[in-house]
Structure formats: C-alpha cells, structure tokens
Design a protein that fits this description.
By secondary structure, this protein is an alpha/beta fold. The protein has 13 helices and 11 strands. It has a single domain, classed as Aldolase class I (TIM Barrel). It is 40% helix and 12% strand. Strands 1-9-8-6-5-4-3-2 form an 8-stranded parallel sheet. Strand 10 and strand 11 form a beta hairpin. Helix 2 runs parallel beside helix 3 and helix 3 runs parallel beside helix 5.
C-alpha cells in the first residue's frame, strides 16, 4: 500500500510508519530493513560521538539507499552537583556489594548534548541524511538553519502544546507528538517542570489543530489498527518503538527480550531513577527501587545514567537482568518477535485492513 501526504512525499517514503530511534536498541540493520520496506527507519546517535555516528550512518547506507532518520539528544547539559552525586553512589553501594562489585568512584556526564557538539553538527551537515530528529529539546537557531540549508528534513519531539509551539517557531518541519503511553525517555524540554501527562489521542488532536505542522503520533502504538487510529486523528504518520524491540535486528539483550515477553510488559512504570530523566520502563528491580525516591535526590541526566549503567553491567555479569534500562510503552504486551521488514509488512497489511473496515463502517452508516 502507499499513502501520500506532504510529509511522506517530502521524505520520500510510501508508508506512514516511523521506526522510533532507540539508543542501544535500534541498529543500522534495523533502520535499513525498515526503510527498505517502505517506512522510515531510524538510528539513534545521542549516545555516540561523531566518529561513532559516522560509522552508524555508513553502515546504514551500505544496507539501503532509502531515506532514514538520524536522532540526536538536545538536552540541557548537566549541572554538576557533587553532594547529590555522592549521596546517590552511597545509596546504591549496598546493591553493588550484593553483586560483588564496587560502585563508580564518581559520576560523569556520559553523553554530550547535541546543543554543544560542534563535531556532530559538522558530521550531519557533511553526511546529509534525509531526516534528523531532536529529542529532549532543540539546538540553537544557527544549527537548525545549517541543517535546513543542507536539505535535511527536521523533526522534534513535543509532549505538550508549549513545546510544540517552540518547535514550530524554530522552523522544524514536523512534530513528534509523544503521549504519556510512550516507552523510553519523555521528550520533555525541561524535566523539572510539571508534566501534563497528555495521552497520545488528546495530544495528537491538540497538535493537529494548533501546531500548524505535520504531526507524527507516538505512544503505545503497536499494530496497524493503532496506526489507522493515529491517521484518523489527523496525524501524518505514526512512530513505533516498543513494537521493534523484539525484532531480530534489535540490540536488546536476552534479559530485555525475556522481560518484554513476560508479565512485566503489563506493568510499565515511569521512572527517573535509572537515567536521571523520566522514562517508561518494563517493571523490574530498578523501577521498584526508584519508585519512592524524590526527584531532587536523583542526579541530573545523564549523570545518573553513569551509575545506572554500571549497576546493570555488574548485575548482568552475574546473570541478573533486573537493573536494565528496559524501556517499553504501555502497548508492550502486543510486541511481536519477527524480522523488522516482516513487521513493517504486517503493519502495512493491518493498516490497510483497518482503513478498509473503517470505510465500510462509514458506508454502512451512510446507508442506514
């Protein structure tokens, strides 16, 4: 099937499906397979430096000539807080001890924000991927202008109307409406502000009505019926992340995959404890431990993630996957283990069936 709208036509894809960029999960092989199948594949380079990003772009291009998306993190750089960071290490020391390991001596800002990464900006301008997307905020006007001048379509995530207005004012081409249901990190520009927790249905309709930009709906969408619902709300496309975690090309480890196929998928939880920013995860030991920790006792993102990754590594070394960043949305029980291209084909067939059923229902209503 082919659906035509201005955004899809501009990017050069035939299906209104975006595979979400998931750092540590989405691979060049996944992105290429999705793009080859007619949707928009994505790689996430927010956890990489410019050299690592270049290698990922090169690998994706070696596998496909189709358009794909490169996602970067545009978060506010962390402000060091030695007292909070020391207390955080002390809080987790017993957990490391139980695993026969020692916590980090100190915590560092493990990811560099795109806001201050000139090398990453230069790389993207030189490589000119079809699409670049921003999460956690926006870079400065000069960076946006340079990327647009390079002919790159720009996307950015919004969780509320105020963020969407900033995205539109900045000259971004489309907004990813991230509902409260979505797995992984909330795309909030400022995680310390109150979160309206808008669901994807309300947020999509609000942004379609007010944002004056094409909208990509994201959050809990797992199948063609969900994509059809997003399109019926006025979205130009739907972005799916959790749906691809169990794909063959996913970088998710065995523990993550097992948890996704378990009862934990029915109990996703929003947590700040793993990384320092709110993120929806499968219920595990880390989410349980972090449930009652006040936000002001957690180091900033991504400083807290330094400890979270160290704890997960220590646990995995002993066969314990309960401390992983097992990001997943509320639709997690609908996940399917299949090659990424086959999943796209299945989603397209389900979408066509759902749209056909909707048309028949409308015709029947007209007749009645």
């Amino acid at each position: 099937m082919t659906i035509s709208n201005a955004l899809l036509d501009r990017i050069g894809i035939r299906l209104p499906i975006v595979q979400a960029p998931m750092a540590g999960v989405s691979s060049p092989a996944m992105a290429a397979a999705v793009s080859e199948a007619g949707a928009l594949g994505s790689i996430a380079v927010g956890a990489a430096d410019a050299a690592g990003a270049q290698a990922m772009i090169a690998e994706t291009r070696a596998r496909t000539e189709a358009p794909f998306n490169v996602n970067v993190f545009a978060h506010r750089p962390a402000t060091p807080s030695p007292a909070i960071e020391a207390a955080w290490i002390a809080r987790f020391r017993p957990h490391f001890k139980a695993l026969g390991a020692e916590p980090p001596v100190r915590l560092t800002e493990i990811y560099r924000s795109f806001i201050e990464d000139e090398a990453m900006l230069a790389l993207l301008i030189a490589q000119r991927p079809a699409v670049v997307s921003f999460h956690f905020g926006l870079p400065g006007d000069a960076a946006i202008r340079a990327l647009r001048d390079a002919g790159i379509v720009l996307l950015a995530t919004a969780t509320n109307l105020a963020e969407a207005r900033m995205i539109a004012d900045a000259g971004i081409d489309a907004v990813v409406a991230q509902g409260w249901e979505a797995g992984g990190h909330r795309g909030m520009f400022d995680p310390d502000l109150p979160d309206d927790q808008l669901g994807i249905m309300a947020l999509t309709r609000l942004l379609v009505d007010t944002a004056k930009l094409p909208v990509i709906a994201a959050g809990g969408i797992m199948d063609g019926a969900g994509i059809a619902a997003a399109l019926a709300l006025g979205a130009s496309a739907a972005q799916l992340g959790t749906a691809f975690v169990a794909a063959d090309e996913s970088l998710a480890d065995a523990g993550y995959r097992a948890a996704l196929a378990s009862d934990a998928a029915q109990h996703t939880q929003m947590t700040r404890a793993i990384s320092g920013r709110p993120a929806r995860s499968l219920a595990n030991r880390f989410t349980a431990f972090g449930a009652d920790i006040p936000a002001d006792e957690i180091p900033a993102y991504p400083v807290a993630y330094d400890l979270g990754k160290a704890l997960n590594a220590a646990a995995k070394a002993r066969g314990d996957f309960g401390f992983g960043a097992q990001w997943a949305g509320q639709g997690a029980p609908l996940a399917r283990a299949t090659p990424a291209a086959r999943l796209v084909e299945t989603l397209a067939a389900e979408l066509e069936q759902a749209r056909g059923a909707g048309k028949q229902d409308g015709d029947a209503h007209d007749i009645a």
